[in-house]
Amino acid sequence: MSESYVTLITTLTSAGVGGAVALVGVYLTNKGNTARQDVQLAHQTQIERAELLRARGEELYELIDKWLNNLFGYYMVKASVMQGKLSYNDGLDLELKNGKTNSGNYGRIQMLIDVYFPAIREQYDCVLSLREATNKHVFLHKRAYERGETDGTAFLKPFTDNQLSLEAAAEKLKEAVIAQVRAV
């Protein structure tokens, strides 16, 4: 009987040790798989975020480019009116014609900058500030034109100077967008 107890104890001990080793093996395998999945998920998330930022950056660049092209087209008409090449009414007709074909979602520019690219906010604000200063000259010319002062040459120099500053700031903004997209 003692021999059967020894055999039973040996069998139970072997089964217990084998089961414990199997449990430790399963635990270590699961822990390794979980760590691998975490690394894989983090990598996949990083790739998806980079793709999202790249896509949003490209969209932002396209929107800014379209906005600036439309803005400078508008300013070309205003400069022609100031130079006397166009009447004010002809200029307005051109603006209406261009406005119908040049619609854009320019509010999205600000949203994309605020959400995805806050590092370029300073360049964007600079462009807005210079646009406002340039528009001031357009407004002053309009008021003078409404008073019957059709010679806009007095407004042309400050208007052109502001527009050149605006163009330089616009190029810096576009370069900043490109730098942000490349950094992704």
From TrEMBL:
Keywords: Membrane, Transmembrane, Transmembrane helix. The chain crosses the membrane at residues 6-28. It comes from the Bacteria. This is Uncharacterized protein. It comes from Ralstonia solanacearum (Pseudomonas solanacearum).
